[in-house]
Write a structure and sequence with these properties.
Blueprint lengths: L1 E5 L2 E4 L4 E5 L6 E6 L3 H20 L2 H17 L1 H12 L3 H26 L2 E5 L2 E9 L2 E5 L7 H13 L2 E5 L5 H13 L7 E3 L4 H8 L6 E5 L2 H10 L7 E5 L4 E5 L5 H12 L10 E7 L2 H15 L20 H16 L3 E4 L14 E4 L15 E7 L2 H8 L7 E5 L3 H10 L4 E4 L11 E2 L11 E2 L2 H5 E8 L16
Parallel strand pairs: 7-8, 7-10, 8-9, 10-11, 12-13, 12-17, 13-16, 15-16, 17-18
Antiparallel strand pairs: 1-2, 3-4, 5-6, 6-21, 14-15, 19-20
Helix pairs in contact: 2-4, 2-5, 2-6, 3-4, 3-6, 4-5, 9-10
Bound molecules: 1,4-dihydronicotinamide adenine dinucleotide and the ligand O=C(O)CCC(=O)N[C@@H](CCC(=O)O)C(=O)O.
EC number: 1.2.1.71
Keywords: Arginine metabolism, NAD, Oxidoreductase
Pfam family, one: Aldedh
Length: 487
């Protein structure tokens, strides 16, 4: 089976066997073999060979290819959304929004490229000071499973636009979506070697990340893998590494007037995508006392009624499955571990069928847990911490090595300003859900969440480097010579 796209050809893999499974029915959706180190070599060689021509293409020429890619995605939107739903388990309505984000990424990236990495010039003495940008060369893009289309696309589109060649290694859990995406690039007329698709898991990732022929790596995934890559790139300041990693995101609730609005916003923050967004609220900080008790009672009632189901079920569920039976088992174990350590289940997360990765929302009160793990539980498991003062809530919110997203639900501007001043995260929201960040804004975190190379609107910044120059049509002697030099 032809699973990799290398040097303009589809070819079978020669590495480890891979399968992608429907997380609910366990039906096989895709199978093949991963790329070996030799196949990675071939893709890097093809990209190196294609680079100078692609970089020398006019910007308009590259934009034309990107726009044909967007048109292809639009025309195949239903098919791509279905593949996303099948492979990830997310409901079709949500998968459709992912395809829309992929299409929109093209126009947004063009705008961002022009704004952040365009050309500037102005007089400086008797010369012209010029600022232009150049692509890095050959870059690898590693994608996560939770947004198998949109998130790798958020690196690939701006990278190609800037003139880089790309080696795309999607998550081994979502190869089918990657294949469809690459088909659209081919249909768009991308020249041979400019984009390669290397399917595979850890083995392929290790071979690609360590390849001497790459000039950089753009990664979205877990903090664990991101840290491994960071260590691997240590001592290589010549290579660009952009890391978008996870979070242990806090959402503080103040005593607000509209309890239902708060509950709805919490649900959208914690349980959308079955809790599989890096921006999901993981820790909900609730005031001690009667008001806090009433809010939690309402939250438990609403969360307990959330419809969970297969991606294509009608009427549509709010939450689909998590990515795999293994992920479901790990989440159930994480809940059990917290419960064994003084947490209380306000709403126990359950797995109604042992052979399907569907989980119901879980809400645990972990206030009494002595040493709370600073871990990202990537699923529908929300931890509640009760606080006694707003200051202690902010301190608790910041008690994490991560720093991706943080939010406050409060009717008080003064409190928001206090929160904003003290919070440590790349996304800080007020009375808005933590999830659903805009592609027209920068997107990235601090601490264990990233390495200060924000993505989305700022992806243009890591896809090209600035070249400053002083230029003059004529080589002339200056009016005054430097002392000590005679001609
Ligand atoms: N900050 C952000 O923008 C986002 C972060 N994420 C994070 O991604 C995670 C979920 O995605 P996963 O696919 O589980 O992440 P992951 O870290 O397991 O995998 C990401 C990619 O790295 C590859 N990989 C895994 N081990 C590797 C190794 N040793 N060497 C080289 N490559 C390796 C995988 O095959 C995959 O392509 C969550 O932690 C989530 O928070 C997800 C979306 C957005
Ligand atoms: O990358 C962009 O264009 C914007 C960032 C984005 O889409 N964020 C999403 C998904 C993040 C995740 O994978 O968890 C969000 O904030 O919900």
């Amino acid at each position: 089976m032809s699973t990799h796209y290398i040097a303009g050809q589809w070819q079978p893999g020669l590495g480890e066997s891979l399968q992608s499974l429907d997380p609910v029915s366990q039906a096989v959706l895709w199978q093949g073999q991963g790329a070996t180190a030799a196949q990675v070599d071939a893709a890097v060689a093809a990209a190196r060979g294609a680079f100078s021509l692609w970089a020398a293409h006019s910007l308009d020429g590259r934009i034309a290819v990107l726009e044909r890619f967007a048109a292809c995605l639009k025309s195949r939107a239903d098919e791509v959304a279905r593949a996303i739903g099948e492979e990830t388990g997310k409901p079709l309505w949500e998968a459709a929004t992912e395809v829309t984000s992929m299409v929109n990424k093209v126009a947004i990236s063009i705008q961002s490229y022009r704004e952040r990495t365009g050309e500037k010039s102005g007089p400086l003495g008797d010369a012209t000071a010029v600022l232009r940008h150049k692509p890095h060369g050959v870059v690898a893009v590693f994608g996560p499973y939770n947004f198998p289309g949109h998130l790798p696309n958020g690196h690939i589109v701006p990278a190609l636009l800037a003139g880089n060649c790309v080696l795309f290694k999607p998550s081994e859990l979502t190869p089918k979506v990657a294949e469809l995406t690459v088909q659209c690039w081919i249909e768009a007329g991308l020249p041979e070697g400019v984009l390669s698709l290397l399917q595979g898991g850890r083995e392929t990732g290790v071979a690609l990340a360590g390849h001497p022929g790459i000039d950089g790596l753009f990664f979205t995934g877990s903090s664990r893998t991101g840290n491994l890559l960071h260590a691997q790139f240590a001592g290589r300041p010549d290579k660009i590494l952009a890391l978008e990693m996870g979070g242990n995101n806090p959402l503080i609730v103040d005593q607000v007037a509209d309890v239902d609005a708060a509950v709805y916003t919490i649900v959208q923050s914690a349980f959308i995508s079955a809790g599989q967004r890096c921006t999901c609220a993981r820790r909900l900080l609730v005031p001690q006392g009667e008001w806090g008790d009433a809010l939690l009672a309402r939250l438990v009632q609403v969360a307990g009624q959330i419809k969970v189901g297969r991606f294509d079920e009608q009427p549509a569920p709010f939450m689909g499955s998590v990515i795999s039976l293994q992920a479901a088992a790990q989440l159930m174990q994480a809940q059990q571990d917290l419960l064994a350590g003084d947490a209380t289940a306000l709403l126990a997360m359950t797995q109604p069928q042992a052979d399907a990765a569907l989980l119901t929302p879980g809400i645990l009160d972990v206030t009494a847990v002595g040493e709370r793990p600073d871990e990202e539980f990537f699923g529908p498991l929300l931890q509640v911490i009760r606080y006694d003062s707003f200051e202690s809530a902010i301190a608790e919110a910041n008690a994490t090595a991560y720093g991706l997203a943080a939010g406050l639900l409060s009717d008080s501007r003064a409190r928001f300003e206090q929160f904003w001043l003290h919070s440590r995260a790349g996304i800080v929201n007020w009375n808005k859900q933590l999830t659903g960040a805009a592609s027209t804004a920068p997107f990235g975190g601090i601490g264990a969440s990233g390495n200060h190379r924000a993505s989305a609107y700022y992806a243009a910044d890591y896809c090209a480097y600035p070249v400053a120059g002083l230029e003059s049509e004529n080589l002339t002697l200056p009016a005054t010579l430097t002392p000590g030099v005679t001609l």
